[in-house]
Specification:
The structure holds 2 protein chains of 2 kinds.
Chain A (H helix, E strand, L loop, with lengths): L8 E5 L4 E6 L8 E7 L6 E6 L4 E2 L4 E4 L5 E6 L8 E8 L11 E6 L1
Parallel strand pairs in A: 1-9
Antiparallel strand pairs in A: 2-7, 3-4, 3-8, 5-6, 6-7, 8-9
Chain B lengths: L3 E4 L2 E4 L5 E7 L5 E7 L5 E9 L2 E4 L6 E3 L9 E3 L8 E8 L9 E2 L3 E5 L1
Parallel strand pairs in B: 2-11
Antiparallel strand pairs in B: 1-3, 3-8, 4-5, 4-9, 5-6, 7-8, 9-10, 9-11
The chains are: A mainly beta, B mainly beta.
């Protein structure tokens, strides 16, 4: 599976959009981009995933560049409860998820 | 649905003791896995299973055994606990499909080995 690069930490004001970037320049054609988050001490929670088209669900939007070498997770109206570590994971056809260190997003009042 | 459940929530062991961490899911998922998470680190895969009777090693399998006799249960056994196994352990499950879909995680077991 391709490796990913994320910033170590980011801040966001409550009510504003949080844009979390992820680089995955070695991604191959059949690999998906997944986003999970982990709120302090809890098990990771699935957010969204996509292959090449932009995706949106009730939690977030995922924007994947046309060359698929990077993506951005967008939380449209961040709340204090969105403070968490966000993991960007690129995964192929096998079942395993490989977690990096992720981005600590802190939402400030 | 209870989702993925793990017991116990907390455990303290002495070096050399053995124990089993329990994991169960009620979603009829074929794939189950165990991760450990050390302070300030991401999750690392210990063992996984793609169905009853089938298990395989992940990134950090040493010191752990697993078995999968039913679809629902995937216990993790520590054979002889060591302080290096102090960690938070997460079990996860998912359905096997074309794109896989989301993986569901349990609440974790916090293990301390003294």
């Amino acid at each position: 599976d391709a490796k990913t690069t994320q910033p170590t930490s980011m801040d966001c004001a409550e009510g504003r959009a949080a844009n979390l970037p992820c680089n995955h320049s070695t991604i191959s054609g059949n690999e998906y981009v997944y986003w999970y988050r982990q709120i302090h001490s809890q098990g990771p929670q699935y957010i969204i995933h996509g292959l090449k088209n932009n995706e949106t669900n009730e939690m977030a939007s995922l924007i994947i560049t046309e060359d698929r070498k990077s993506s951005t997770l967008i939380l449209p109206h961040a709340t204090l409860r969105d403070t968490a570590v966000y993991y960007c994971i690129v995964k192929g056809s096998n079942y395993k998820l490989t977690f990096g260190k992720g981005t600590l997003l802190t939402v400030n009042p | 649905n209870a989702g993925v459940t793990q017991t116990p929530k907390f455990q303290v062991l002495k070096t050399g003791q053995s124990m089993t961490l329990q994991c169960a899911q009620d979603m009829n998922h074929e794939y189950m896995s165990w991760y450990r998470q050390d302070p300030g680190m991401g999750l690392r895969l210990i063992h996984y299973s793609v169905g009853a009777g089938i298990t395989d090693q992940g990134e950090v399998p040493n010191g752990y055994n697993v078995s999968r006799s039913t679809t629902e249960d995937f216990p993790l056994r520590l054979l002889s606990a060591a302080p290096s196994q102090t960690s938070v352990y997460f079990c996860a499950s998912r359905s096997v499909g074309l794109a896989g879909g989301e993986q569901y995680f349990g609440p974790g077991t916090r293990l301390t080995v003294t």
